[in-house]
Amino acid sequence: QVQLVESGGGLVQAGGSLRLSCAASARTFSRRGIGWFRQAPGKEREFVAGIRWSGGTVYYRDSVKGRFTISRDNAKNTVYLQMNSLKPEDTAVYYCAAQPSGRSYSGSDYYQERQYEYWGQGTPVTVSS
Asked: CB count, 10 Å around CB of 60?
C-alpha cells in the first residue's frame, strides 16, 4: 500500500508561482513512476506531468511545457511540481499518482490514468485573473 499526500496548493494571481509536493509512504517509491494530474470544475481529470523512477525522463502536457517542472527526490520520497507563470486555466485540483513498482512503462503510458495504481487526495490550486 502506498499513501500519497499532496501539499502546496492555494490561491495565486495570474503570473505567479506555486510548488506542489507529493510525499509518499512506501519504501518502493523510488522504483515507481509518478504522475501529476488535475481536474478542473466540470471537466475530466487530465495528465499534467510525469517522471520516471530515475528522474531522468519527464513528460508534460503541451499547455504546461516551459512553465511547469516536475522533479523528484527519492531520498525524501517526494515528487515536486514547480508551477510558474500560472494562468486562470490552470485552476484545478491537482493529484499525484504512483505507478505499480518494478514495471516498465512506455512514455505514452504516463499520460493514461489507468496506468497508475495509487492516488493522493488532491490539493486545490486557484489562479485569479
From this structure: 19
